[in-house]
Amino acid sequence: MRTRLSPTLVLLALVLVALLAALTDVPARLRAELAPVTVRVEPASVPLGGTVFVAITAPEATVLCVQTGGKQYPVTRQPDGRWKALVGVWMEELPGPRIMRTYAEVNGKKISVDVHYTVEKRTFPIQRLRMTKEQDAQYEAPSVQEEYRLIRAAINHHDAEQAWQGAFALPVDGRISTRYGVQRYRNGKKVGVHKGIDIAAPTGSPIRAANAGTVTLRRDFGLHGRTIVVNHGSGVVGLYLHLHDFDVAEGDLVKAGQVIGSVGSTGVATGPHLHYALYVHGTAIDPVLWKTIPSGW
Ligand SMILES: [Zn+2]
């Protein structure tokens, strides 16, 4: 007696055959669309004030941007064909897991790739400063708003081309007298957080550019004192305050380690020191953490 195949079984077998065929015969174009973009974030666990270094390999794609924490960051194409992006982690962010989404275009089709990283908790000390009424009043001077505006503009200026290479050395030999992230109280009133580091050194000590870049601001300010901004490109900008003297002019290209000025206490300062801050796409990060960075940068 012949067994009859049930129509359901026949249908199931046909579906299976079709599925197998589809899986074993994926066209090359489609394979490229399935895994065309590889994203690597370093470190996978970043402290507050740290920086996420993003390296993207996408030989057949155009990488558009990366997005994390509700913000979008530009990508820059490197001479070797890879793409890079930098994400600064602000000291007051909420620690916890994060998703980084990379947007790219492959054969005219937009795709996105998600990778994960974690923002680690870190506590920052409190510092109480005593200042005279005259010193305190200088923070409220009308010219101060203009100082902040000019510095802000220089810090936020985005130069896509990366002039820097490798780690960023600290610009002055000396003791770090105030670290990044310190919560500051002036005469008992909370006045903000310390967005850079203070390096104490005798007046006249040389200040060396932390890495290569262009001098985009050189001013003698009332509050910030003699000020230099060096734009290192790809979103990285260095700020140097309270200088005694300048050794460079606006528009100068500087090499890593080149003397750009000397330590002083111009503006409002309690003694000779360099206030040095490093910004990544406008976010002040901890410059000490840039003394070692992932290889290949
Ligand atoms: Zn400072």
Fold and architecture overview:
The chain has 297 residues and is α+β, with helices and mostly antiparallel strands. It has two domains: 37-120, Sandwich (Immunoglobulin-like), CATH 2.60.40.10; 126-291, Glucose Permease (Domain IIA) (Distorted Sandwich). The protein has four helices and 22 strands. The chain has helices at residues 7-24, 28-34, 133-138, 142-156, and strands spanning 38-42, 45-47, 51-57, 62-68, 71-74, 76-77, 83-88, 96-106, 109-120, 126-129, 175-178, 183-186, 189-193, 197-200, 206-208, 213-220, 226-233, 236-246, 253-254, 259-263, 273-280, 283-285. The strands form four sheets. Strands 11, 14, 15, 16, 17, 18, 19, 20, 21 and 22 form a ten-stranded antiparallel sheet that branches. Strands 2-9-8-4-5 form a five-stranded mixed sheet, with no helix packed on it. β8 (96-106) and β9 form a beta hairpin. It starts with 6 loop residues before the first helix and ends in a 12-residue tail after the last strand. Bound molecules: zinc ion. Residues 178, 194, 196, 198, 275 line the site of zinc ion (ZN).
